[in-house]
Amino acid sequence: MSAHALFVTAAYAITAIVLAGLIGWILLDQRARKRELAALEAAGVRRRSDKAAKP
């Protein structure tokens, strides 16, 4: 394997690892935000755009 092929393979591997990490981070953050929203809604906090919730 030439030095060039090793460099290209390493670049693709690092890119794949970084992308997988970012996707994982986004999914974990999404779950945390959903939990926060559920807690706020359970506490009675509503969105300003939610017109149906007004008495």
Walk me through this protein's architecture.
The protein has 55 residues and is an all-alpha fold. The protein has a domain at 3-40. The chain contains one helix and no strands. The chain has one helix at 3-42. The model has no long low-confidence stretch (mean pLDDT 90).
Flag low-confidence runs.
none
How many runs of DSSP E, i.e. beta strands? 0
Helix content: over 70%
Order of helices and strands: H
Termini, distance in Å?
71 Å
Query: How large is the radius of gyration?
Result: 22 Å
List the quaternary state of the chains.
Answer: single chain
Mean pLDDT, as a whole number? 90
Strand content: under 5%
Overall form: rod-shaped
Number of helices: 1
* Biggest beta-sheet profile: none
Structure class: mainly alpha
Summarize the structure.
The protein has one helix at 3-42. The protein is mainly alpha-helical and 55 residues long.
Give the SSE map.
Elements: H1 3-42
List keywords for this structure.
55 residues
